[in-house]
Amino acid sequence: MGQLADVQPNMIRAARAAPYLERDDEKSLAKRWRDNRDDQALHKLAHAHMRLVMAIASRFRFYGLPVADLIQEGHVGLLEAAARFEPDREVRFSTYATWWIRASIQDYVLRNWSIVRGGTSSNQKALFFNLRRLRARLSRHGDVSASVAFGQIALALGVSRSDVEMMNARLSGPDVSLNAPLTESDSTGDDERMDFLIDDKPLPDEAVGGEMDANRRVSWLREAMNVLNERELKIVRERKLSDDGATLESLAAKLGVSKERVRQLESRAMDKLRKALLDRHPDEFAALQA
């Protein structure tokens, strides 16, 4: 209990003073809660197992979260275990409750350890909580390179090596605010980390303007395509407007003409489109051509 110095002394004393329950007493209390919703029985059952909650909570103290909060979350898991426990099974309540207590504390740690959510899958969760332990175990077996260690940890936990490397980087240092000064000596705060992040994407107003311009040009093209005859329209669509882009040979076979004739028809159709666009939208089309 020495690791729980930041927890209220009254809570520690109360947990230490709680009597251990014999199997029959534990079973009787669990049945009273299950069958009659006896709050007093639930209180006695939970109170007797607060030592277990504190012991499990102390294992997660290295994540930098208040131990009192870890105990509180463990208590939530303890009550969840009491709600689901089946006293007729030959299982001690402490054995059953351990899983729920640990799961509740782990979820709390994952939610609050970093502002970036991690450990969303079971494999990632196992990686988060076991990486330090496995890394320490490997270091006791001699000078193991990081590359070899990451590979062995990935194999042991059933995750990819890149996941191990990414999690190791996350656990190596705390979150850093983008609004923090770029260097510790920059006390004025004029240069923030955010100032040096480069985003190649257009600004929102530019993106909207670009989308509006694109829609307008599409409508111009559809209007101009009315000047094409059926064969020219087919060639333009299959050669210029298709994702695959039909070859001259394939179009020649479809139209029953030579490859050179298809090329001539395509060139003529493109000239007609340019003229139609220039006649109907001279200023805009001239700017695009420039």
Summarize this, please?
The protein is an all-alpha fold and 290 residues long. It contains 14 helices and no strands.
Helix content: 55-70%
Mean pLDDT: 81
Largest sheet: none
Estimated share of beta-strand residues: under 5%
Distance between the termini: 78 Å
How many domains, as an integer? Answer: 3
State the CATH architecture of the largest domain: Up-down Bundle
Name of the level-1 CATH class of the largest domain: Mainly Alpha
Defining key terms:
0% strand, 14 helices, Arc Repressor Mutant, subunit A, 66% helix, Four Helix Bundle (Hemerythrin (Met), subunit A), 290 residues, mainly alpha
What does this structure look like?
With 290 residues, the protein is mostly helical. The chain folds into three domains: 2-112, Up-down Bundle (Four Helix Bundle (Hemerythrin (Met), subunit A)); 118-198; 204-289, Orthogonal Bundle (Arc Repressor Mutant, subunit A), CATH 1.10.10. The protein is 66% helix and 0% strand. The protein contains 14 helices and no strands. The chain is elongated and about 95 Å long. The protein has helices spanning 9-17, 23-36, 39-47, 50-58, 67-84, 93-112, 122-139, 146-157, 161-171, 204-224, 230-240, 248-255, 259-280, 282-289. The longest helix is centred in the C-terminal third of the chain and has 22 residues, at 259-280.
